[in-house]
Write a structure and sequence with these properties.
184 residues, alpha/beta, eight-stranded mixed beta sheet, 38% helix, 21% strand
């Protein structure tokens, strides 16, 4: 039975809109992400895990925390790569980050200090602990960043079920089945 879902996504600067959350494409992607999270929750997911990155991890955590206001049984687990992760973020992102941490169910930290592969370790941990993965990712833009390696780890090494939401097309590919769904 599937109860836990890791949520990962591309680094924000890899999106055409970057950090501009007011951009129409970003708003559409976040709405689709919210829709997928609500659908997964309706299908029995009771715990979502994020690696607390500024981007998809933060968006997903905020969505789950909003859902938790009406469903206290829903859990949000935040895995920090290191304690000072948000120190160089903008004040607005830092405020959102700390609000997310204050509202989540549980926090785990990979390392007290920044380590070279701490972000990948955080992704790896949430993927290993989860029954499935929801990834916001353009598979054609695959690179060697922590989130790309985590997605490959989930798909190739652990063979976890993965829903890949394309950030611009808003299509969903389901792995390992390989069937593609479209929004609409």
């Amino acid at each position: 039975m599937i109860h836990r879902c890791a949520v990962i996504g591309q680094y924000p600067l890899r999106f055409p809109w970057g950090f501009d959350e007011e951009d129409t494409q970003c708003r559409c992607m976040k709405l689709e992400l919210a829709q997928r999270i609500m659908e997964l929750h309706q299908c029995g997911i009771t715990e979502f895990q994020v690696a607390c990155d500024h981007g998809v991890g933060l968006y997903a955590a905020e969505i789950v925390n909003t859902l938790r206001e009406n469903d206290q049984a829903l859990r949000l687990i935040c895995v920090l790569p290191h304690e000072g992760q948000a120190t160089k973020w903008t004040p607005q992102l830092r405020d959102r980050y700390f609000a997310m941490l204050a509202s989540c169910t549980d926090i785990d930290c990979i390392s007290p200090y920044e380590q070279p592969d701490a972000q990948f370790s955080a992704y790896q941990q949430i993927v290993e602990r989860s029954d499935m993965v929801l990834a916001v990712h353009d598979l054609s833009a695959n690179a060697d960043r922590a989130e790309d390696r985590a997605l490959r780890y989930a798909l190739e090494e652990l063979k976890k079920p993965v829903l890949v939401l394309h950030p611009q097309k808003l299509t969903v590919q389901v792995f390992p089945q390989g069937s593609e769904k479209t929004n609409g």
